[in-house]
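B., you asked whether I could sanity-check this one before it goes into the benchmark set. Here's the sequence:
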Amino acid sequence: MDYDLIIIGGGPAGLTAGIYASRARVKTLLIESFSVICQAVTTDHIENYPGFPEGVNGFELIEKFKKQAEKFGTEFIAAEVKEIKETKPGWQIVTEDKTYTASSIIIATGASPKRLDVPGEDKFRGRGVSYCATCDGALFKNKEVVVVGGGDTALEEALFLTRFAKKVTVIHRRNALRGTKILQERSFANKKIEIAWDSVVTEITGSGKVAGVKIKNVKTNAITDFSCDGIFICVGYTPNTGFLKDAVPLDEAGYIISDDNCLTSKAGIFAAGDCRKKLLRQVVTAAGEGATAAFACQRYLENQIS
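And here's what the prediction gave me:
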């Protein structure tokens, strides 16, 4: 085998796994994607990661993770993993121009927020455009924001944002919400929340930062300008697991199924972070799972030797 362990993914889960594995003298390679951008990197101000009472820039935090992994000996390459193949013993990780072998794998490829794909979304990302109220909600104290979506995530985000914002407008393309009844009841009862029915966002506007959105009524096609200080896009996530094919079991949404020790049903393959089926997707939970996966992987490799 080329390596004891290959980690696929360079976010907080993969980097923490690299720190723990390399520190345990497990020969480790971490493969970072060219195309997948770690969500934490695009978050301007993370306020809920322990140890940073004043908050921390997401890019700076991830750079610290990376330097720490490098310090202990994790090797890094940038490549796109195309496939994982079983070999005897271990696994083959196939990239676009090379194949690597390893006794074990940690998949930590994360998930990408589904986008609206409207003008202004990329321009104002991190400057009023957010995909995570838990991460960024406190930045909008006493401001007016919109939430796009009508499912559980959108309603949970809207309710959370009422702790900070003075007004939250939920923009939903249908005339009825899709979220669970109790979340709907709480949303309707909250005086800070308003619903824009039968509507979609067609453009995000501003100069330097978000100042408003253009809303189209899907029944009348009328377009109105709506002033706001931020927009939270909550139309779901897509796990970055398309390359896995049948390598490990996935749930119906494409998330990797694994146990409490981050082990999949395939011996030697572990999963950590936002690509894994779980309750909470945050930097702190991803880091914890990276540590768990690395420790479980270390035990697995020791058992293979004995």
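One thing to flag: The chain has two domains: 3-113+237-305, 129-233. Otherwise nothing jumped out at me.
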